[in-house]
Amino acid sequence: MNKLLDESLITFAENLQLPEKVVDTDTIPWIPYDDGNCYFKPLRFDFTSGTWTYLFKIKGNKTLTRHRHTGGSVVGYNLQGNWRYAERDWVAKPGTFIFEPPGDIHTLITEGEEEVITLFTLGGALQYFDEDNQIIGQDDIFTVYKKYCDFCKEHGLFQRVDLIY
Q1: Would the pLDDT of 63 be above 60?
Q2: Dihedral, 71, 130, 138, 42 alpha carbons, nearest 10
C-alpha cells in the first residue's frame, strides 16, 4: 500500500511542476543596462515572484552607482573578472558565490582591465543613490524586462517569451 501511495504522489507532483528550461546563452544578445558600462543577458523573468535571473557584464575599471536591493535577496556567482564593494573587505573572483540580504547598500567596483561577468538572481527592486543619499532611480523586473523588449524591438530581434516562467 505504501508503494502505491508513493507512486501516486510522484505522479501527482510531476503533473504540477514547471517544465524544464534549457537556455543557450549564446542566442541571447547583450542588452545595454546603462550608459554603456554594463550589459545583461536575461535568462529568466518570474513575474509571479518579481525575481529575474541574468548574466551581468561590466567593463573593467568601472564604479557603478551606489545602490540598495529591496524586497528580496540577491544571489550571485562570479564567472569572470574581479569585483568588490567599496564598503566591504572581500573581492569576488571567478568562482565566488555571493549572497546579499535585502536592504544592503553598496557600490560595485570592478578591479582591473578585464570585463566582469556574474550570474545574478535578484528579487524586489534596485534603488540608486546620489552622493546626498537621495534616490535617483530604480529598476525592478518590469524595467529590466522593458529594457530587453525595447532593445529587441529597436534591433529587429525576436523577443524570447520562453524566458518568462
Answers
A1: yes
A2: -90
